[in-house]
Structure formats: C-alpha cells, structure tokens
Design goal:
- By secondary structure, the protein is mainly β.
- It folds into 7 domains: about 110 residues, no CATH class; about 90 residues, Immunoglobulin-like (Sandwich); about 90 residues, Immunoglobulin-like, CATH 2.60.40; about 90 residues, Immunoglobulins (Immunoglobulin-like, Sandwich), CATH 2.60.40.10; about 90 residues, Immunoglobulins (Immunoglobulin-like); about 100 residues, Immunoglobulin-like; about 110 residues, Immunoglobulins (Immunoglobulin-like).
- Strand 21 and strand 22 form a beta hairpin.
- The longest helix has 6 residues.
- The N terminus is likely disordered.
Length: about 700
C-alpha cells in the first residue's frame, strides 16, 4: 500500500496513534523503525510509559512545526521527553502503520493490529443491584499495537479500554470486574467488541429478593431531657414483594418499638416513631432497622441539672470468693456541672461501695472500685450507678464446695415416757448445688433415721423425724447431723411411777457348772419413790422360758441409786445363755457360756465285806459318778495294801460315763493277801474310797458289811 498524499488527506484517515518513545521503535518487521529528522537518524526501542504523543487532527503546518522539548503538541498530547527529535507520530490507515516526521514525510512502519475476541464468559443470571465479572480472550492477528475494546449491555456501554497492547499473534485474557447490574429485570445481550471483532452472551437480570431500604430518616437535631421526639422514617422495598417484614426502632436503651408489615415491589411506606429523651446521653442515637438496611441519626439532649452517664463498664466476667477485683467505669457528665455527684458499685442491687465526684458539664472521668469478692456464689448483676444512669454486666462468682448448715432445731423440752414427739430442723446448702445430701436423726449420738435432700446454692429445706420416748433415761440428746454440721438439744423423759433402770452390768462371760460367781449392776430409780420393787437374776437360753436364778425386793426412792449384786452357783446345763439383772422396767444382760468341767470321776457307796477268808473269792461294789465332761474307757481299780508298802490290784473295770452320769461298778476278786488288817479301796484318777478289811484264816471268818463308812 502506498503512502497517502497529500499529508492532510492522509492524516484525516488516521484511526489511531501509538506511543513514540525516545530511543526506540519498530521497523516493518516489528523490530526497529528508522526515523529521519533534521538532526539525523534516531533509533526508537520498546515504547515506554511517559513519552506518548497523541494527535486528534493535524494539518501540514502543525506537522512541520518544530516542538522544543517539554512542549505539549496539542490539547490531548503529552510531553516529549527528548531534544533529539521533534513532532514524531505513529499513525495508521486501514492496513499499515506509519511514522510522520516534522517535515510531513510518512515512513511505512508495518502492519496494524487486529484484535479478535472469543470465549466471552459472564453469569447467566444476576440479581439486580449485584456486581458481576466478565472475562474474554483476545488474539492479535495483525501487527503489534493496541486497540480499543468496548463492553456493552444491549445499547448501554459498560466499559471501554485502549490500554491493551499485543505483539503480532499475541493473546491475552481480559477481565472487567465489579460491573453493577443496575438495569431493570429482564433478558439482555452482553457484547464485547473491537474494531475488527465481537462476541456475545445472554444474561438475565433478575428481580432481587426483598430488600427493604431505609430511604429517609428525619428527627429534630436536639431536644431537652424528658422531651418526646418524633422520628419520621421512609422505607422502600427495592426487591421482590415480601410479607411480615420486621421494622425496629432502636434507642440507646435498646429496641423500643418493633412492627411487621407487607411490602410490595418498589413499595414505599412511611413510619412515625416516638422517643422520650430519658437516656442519660449527650447524643441519643436513634436507629430504624430492617432485615436489609438501617439508618441512624443523633439527637443532642440538653440537660438543666447534672446528669452523669455511665459510658462503659469494665469488670471481670468470673471471680472466686476472696478475689480482689477491679471495676472501672467511664463517666460523662452530659448535664450541668455539679459537685459531690454520687457513684455506687452494686451487686444485684446490694451496694458494695460508693464514692463522690465533682464534674463540669461534658467532663469525662474514670472511676475505679477495688472490691474483695464476698458474694456467696452464682451469677450476679454487677453495676455502676449514678443518680441518672446505670450500666451493668454479669459476673459469675464460683460456688464454694458443697456445704450444709443446720439451724432452727425444734423439739419439745420434755416428753412423757413412751409418748411420741417430732423434731424438725432446717438444712441449708451454702455451697455448690448438690443432690442426695444425707441428713441423719440422732438420739444420744446414735443414728435412728436418715433422709436425703437435693439443694441448690442457698436453698433451705426443713426435715423432720418422729420418735418415741422409750429410752430408759431421764434425759436424752436429740439432734440432726450432716457431713458438715450438727445441731442437738437435751430432752427430759418424764415418768409418773417408779422406774428402775439398770446399768454398769458386771458379770462373767463364761463359767463352769458348779462354780459360784458374782453378777452385779447399778440400779437407778428415775421415776417416783418405790417400795418392794422386784429385782432378779435371770438366764435365758433363747427359748420362751426364762429361769430366775436369784431374786429379792428393794425399796428405792426417786432418783435413788443402788449397787445390786447376786452370788450364784451355776447349775445350768452346758450351753449359751443370756444372763442379766432385771427390774420391772429394764434389764442389763450379757452372754454367758456355761461349760462342762473336765472329766472327774467320783467314787461313792463303796461296799466290801469287813472280813474275808484268805484266798476266798469275794465281791465289792462302788458307785462311780462323772461330774465332768463325757468320757469313755475310764479305769476303776480295786486295790489292796499288803502292809509292806506295796499295793496289789485285785480287780480292774473300764467304764464310760456321760456328764453327771452314775454307774455301779462290781468287782470280783480273790483275797490272795496275807492274814491281817488290810486297806482295800476303789480308785479312779480323781477319787477313791477305802475300807479296812480283815484277812482271816479259812473257817474263821464272819460276815460283816460296812457301808458308807467315812474311811480313807
């Protein structure tokens, strides 16, 4: 293609210009452009920012004008940054790029850029009012350069750019971000185009969900404390219709008013809210809020007296009993200045500490309280309070360990014997809540009954027990006990007749048959005076029959004490007994084991002739009794003394005997003894009985039988 001439015509065909930068440029092969100037040849390298010259229109005279360094060529151009060249322009027609020097010569510079658009990406649907991104690919099928790119939605141009420069055959992905969908709901065509190409996609702008906006909010700029302020609000639904849209009017004290209304699409509603300026603030922030929007305006409040606002409160959220905590509050006097203005620290409306301050109008200060926690435990409303305002926060004081206290014991001072009475007491938990807390009812320290209670912190429950006054005492101690505490009270037992109790019983725990032992006890008449009161010693073997071992009658005055004892020889059968001393009203007992004594064989009723002829056979008898433990194989001997110091066994018998059993033993023997008086006896291991018998010559004997003689 030839260079156009004359230059005026050619310039009018220029579609775009490209930067010309000192020391650089391009030739027809896109490597270098050589420019002829008055001063010679200048090489232009890669274009750089800051040295661009743009021409909207041109004439031959303008082109031939020499522009010194730093001079703006025209009203759209930028400064030239070198004095080695003057009015240098890149220009292009439909096919080629050209460089125009100050003499108006046009030098062919190469093929112009051609941007092809493809792969346009955008959301298919978008809510009205939302933002979206659009991206697409471009490819330069011409020479190196830049081109203008336009993004439009139907006939509305959304974005344009001419800042994209590509080499020949170069590609890039372009993204337009944050495009706001301001068009009305409907179907649209999104188009991206260059001078040589375009691409389109469909996009649907949808009606957004309900979107109720606070489009207007009006109220007086100031008011006196206590005045009623009218607040006007206008709300517009910029989205789909919706029923029961919540609208809240919020003051410094919180939500003062709330309502629900139905809104159609683009429907406008007006509201009037009233606020009484009772909050202690210098500026009352009044807010109207919907689920989608809110608006706030401030109303200055005027005060005639001091009004100290508690602006903020700083305190720990948790503490243990005994902790030293710091509570700080920022105060602002939004009213008139004043002296000795009171400030208090409270917990659940109980005053913990107070102080006073002098504050001018609009003066700020910080008050600090140091407090040793002595609250019992739980969650408390910790507050700093002035005459005009209060601010609070919750503080949790850790419960101490579970601990019960007993109080308010109620029981009669006296109870007739065998009558019933009821005792009550209050149980309070002063620690951590707990279930199944044990409470025991005692008399004289012995647990008679118990129950369990479930108690929260500082909770009290009354427990009661009914008892019968059948104790053999003039006075008893009635009480309640827990793991942590106890309460008790003395109660008198009253008697209308003599009443003899037993105590301090002293008796053996085991005895053998036949032994004599002492059984003793202390008798006390805790009733009226009494005469001929029967007292006895008894034994019970566990059957319905009791054996009275000893007894007597006593006279005992009321309040009198007698030391009673019985001496008794045991004649009970072997076995286990309960033996004790009794009165008509009481008894003291103890287990007694009656044992059989060791085997002991007694000899009795020994009978033998008083004279026996020498070498004659004779017979002797004796009664053998076992007064001890049963035994068998017992040896019973008939023994004679020969008079020379030696003994001879005339006969030997073996017997078996139960306890207390007697048996007659018969001895048959021959009198092979010297003539004369001889001692003959019956012997066991434990006893013996001896007789003197005359041994005579044959034919000279006579019959004499000695029985029960006390001879040893």
């Amino acid at each position: 293609m030839s260079v156009p001439s004359p230059i005026e015509t050619w310039v009018q065909r220029i579609r775009r210009l490209t930067p010309v930068v000192v020391d650089g440029g391009y030739d027809a092969d896109h490597n270098e452009v050589v420019i002829v100037t008055e001063s010679g040849v200048v090489n232009l390298p890669e274009p750089q920012e800051g040295s661009e010259v743009i021409v909207k229109t041109a004439t031959e005279n303008e082109i031939n004008t020499v522009a010194p360094p730093g001079v703006v060529i025209d009203d759209v151009g930028q400064e030239i940054s070198s004095d080695q060249w003057q009015s240098l322009y890149f220009a292009a027609d439909d096919e080629q790029w050209y460089l125009i020097n100050q003499l108006g010569d046009a030098v062919e510079g190469g093929e112009r850029p051609v941007f092809e658009v493809s792969d346009l990406i955008a959301p298919e649907q978008i809510d009205r009012g939302d933002s979206y991104d659009v991206s697409f690919d471009i490819e330069n099928t011409g020479g190196r350069g830049r081109d203008e790119i336009t993004l439009s939605l139907d006939d509305d141009v959304l974005e344009t750019t001419s800042d994209v420069t590509l080499d020949a055959d170069g590609t890039d992905t372009i993204t337009f971000e944050g495009i706001e969908a301001t068009q009305r709901p409907g179907d649209y065509t999104l188009t991206v185009e260059t001078p040589d190409s375009s691409d389109t996609v469909g996009i649907e702008i949808e009606r957004p969900p309900s979107n109720v906006q606070v489009t207007s909010l009006e109220a007086p700029s100031d008011a006196d404390a206590g005045d009623t302020i009218h607040v006007q609000a206008e709300l517009t639904n910029e989205g789909s219709a919706k029923d029961n849209v919540g609208v809240e009017f919020i003051t410094p004290a919180g939500v003062q008013e709330s309502t629900e209304d139905d809104f159609g699409f683009l429907e406008v509603r007006e509201y009037t809210f009233e606020y009484t300026a009772e909050d202690v603030v210098s500026v009352a922030d009044l807010t109207v809020e919907t689920p989608n929007d809110s608006d706030t305006l401030g109303v200055s409040i005027n005060y005639g007296d001091p009004a100290v606002s508690v602006e903020s409160l700083t305190a720990p959220a948790e503490a243990d009993i005994g902790d030293e905590i710091t509570v700080e509050a920022d105060l602002l006097n939004v009213g008139q200045g004043g002296d000795d203005l009171g400030v208090s620290l409270l917990a659940d409306d109980e005053t913990l500490d107070t102080t006073t301050l002098d504050l001018d109008q609009d003066e700020e200060t910080t008050v600090t309280f140091e407090y040793e926690v002595d609250l019992a435990g739980g969650t408390f409303d910790l507050a700093v309070e002035t005459d005009a305002d209060r601010r609070s926060q919750e503080i949790f004081v850790a419960f101490p360990p579970t601990e019960t206290e007993l109080s308010n014991l109620d029981v009669p001072d006296s109870v007739p014997f065998e009558d019933s009475a009821t005792a009550t007491a209050d149980v309070t938990n002063i620690g951590d809540p707990a279930d199944d807390l044990l409470v025991e009812f005692t008399i004289d320290g012995d647990v008679l009954n118990s129950t369990t209670v479930d108690l929260d912190f500082d909770e009290t429950e009354t427990v009661s027990f009914t008892f019968t006054a059948d104790m053999l005492e003039q006075e008893i101690t009635v009480g309640f006990e827990t793991d942590d505490d106890s309460v008790s009270q003395l109660v008198d037992i009253t008697f209308d007749d003599p009443f003899v109790t037993t105590s301090d019983y002293d008796a053996p725990v085991s005895v053998e048959i036949g032994q004599t032992r002492t059984f003793a006890a202390t008798l006390e008449n805790i009733g009226k005076d009494g005469q001929d009161i029967p007292v006895g010693l008894f034994a019970d073997e566990g059957t319905s029959d009791e054996q009275v071992l000893e007894s007597e009658s006593l006279d005992i005055d009321g309040g009198g004490i007698v030391e009673q004892s019985f001496e008794h020889t045991i004649e009970l059968d072997p076995g286990e007994y309960t033996v004790g001393i009794f009165t008509p009203h009481a008894s003291s007992t103890q287990a007694l084991t009656v044992d059989t004594p060791p085997t002991e064989i007694l000899v009795d009723s020994f009978e033998i002739p008083d004279a026996i002829e020498q070498d004659d056979d004779f017979e002797a008898t004796a009664e053998i009794t076992n007064i001890g433990e049963e035994a068998t194989g017992l040896s019973v001997d008939l023994i004679a003394d020969e008079g020379t110091g030696s003994e001879v066994v005339l006969d030997e018998q073996t017997v078996g005997l139960d306890f207390d059993e007697s048996k007659e033993v018969v001895f048959e023997a021959t009198a092979e003894l010297d003539i004369g008086s001889r001692e003959i006896g019956v012997f066991t291991d434990d006893d013996s009985e001896v007789r003197t018998v005359e041994i005579v010559e044959d034919g000279s004997s006579f019959d004499v039988t000695i029985t029960d003689a006390d001879v040893n």
